[in-house]
Amino acid sequence: MGNLLTEQAAQKRAQELRKQLNEWSYQYYVMDRPTVEDIAYDKSYRELVKLEKKFPKIIVSDSPTQRVGGRVLDGFDKLNHELPMLSLGDVFSKQELLDFDKRLRKVVAEDFAYNCELKIDGLAISLVYKNGLFVQGSTRGNGVIGEDITENLKTVKAIPLKLTEPVSIEVRGECYMPKRAFAKLNAQREAEGKPVFANPRNAAAGSLRQLDTKITARRHLSTFIYYLMEPEKLGIEKQSEALQKMSEWGFRINPESRVTAAATEIDAYIDEYQAKRIALPYDIDGIVLKADPFSVQQIVGNTVKVPRWAIAYKFPPDEQETIVRQIEWTV
Ligand SMILES: CC(C)(C)c1nc(N2CCN(c3ncccn3)CC2)c2cc(C(N)=O)c(N)nc2n1
Q1: Whole-number Å distance between alpha carbons of 6 and 23
Q2: Which helix (H) or strand (E) holds 243?
Q3: Alpha carbons 186 and 188: distance in angstroms, whole number
Q4: For each successive 10 residues of the chain (331 residues), what is the average pLDDT?
Q5: Of 6, 23, 207, 318, which is the most buried if we count CB atoms within 10 A?
Q6: Which of these is catalytic: 78, 119, 130, 290?
Q7: Of ligand 1's atoms, which has the minimum distance to the CA of residue 86?
Q8: pTM across the whole model
Q9: ipTM over the 0.90 cut-off
Q10: Is 19 considered catalytic here?
Q11: Could you tell me the distance, in angstroms and rounded to a whole number, from the CA of residue 176 to the centre of ligand 1?
């Protein structure tokens, strides 16, 4: 491009490049479906970087160039979760799960199904969007006070910088490090004589706590988003519906969740994923059962710390998992 390029022409070309790059990135990082060779991506990306360098005024917040990090923060601001990030009650046996189900059905007259979800073993995060643009990301902290890690979360490619609709929402999810990235990182750290991380959750937490966002950007973090705050404001009536809607907005949603009507289906779900656990490309430490209709949440509400309409079933610690981790996922 000769330098006769006007800012307007640069803006137009940059918009075309962003659209293409964001589409490729969505397919790769959100849908796990690589659709383009790296070289094609890099070529377009380099052209966009050049255009934005030449005409800085054309830069927009959802440009893929805004994901590389680059600032070294001197700390994280604390922030107040207007809607507290609750904890989860947890049970360790199917019998306790049945007791939870019985207790809940005693209070709730209407029949209802559960939404069963894998319990991703990462770090709980909250993401706030204003008119479809990512404006703030934070850690759970103690549930009321968290840390603003927006700059670091912008580098997580699975977190959309701009949604497909201009909605103003807050969502909750888990930020995690895939097992393969964890094995690679630890192999690298070992080679550099640095201490290795004990598990992917610690590695994810350490990566999000980095004050140098460039380091966070190369840690291959990902997310699964699992809750939409105040769904009633958008006329969404069930957890399964909220997950579907969040997927349409561009969030990465775990594909293994399932609506189960009867308790026996829950048993099957638990058995299935206890067996699949080792083969999953990310760590899970159980499953999360949520009453699917949000009306049930309205009826039973939450205690100070935990919802009465949801429970976590924790898998027994699976020691051979650790041995397998060394074999299966070393690069
Ligand atoms: C929205 C509710 C409260 C029902 C909820 N809360 C969750 N958690 C709360 C406790 N959390 C927590 N973290 C640290 C210390 C205490 N509690 C960690 C997230 C969920 C975690 C997962 C997951 N991991 O995959 C999930 N699929 N659904 C969740 N749903």
Answers
A1: 26
A2: helix 239-249
A3: 5
A4: 77 96 95 89 96 95 90 93 95 94 93 97 98 98 96 97 98 98 97 97 96 96 98 97 98 97 89 96 97 95 90 83 56 49
A5: 207
A6: 119
A7: 3
A8: 0.93
A9: yes
A10: no
A11: 13
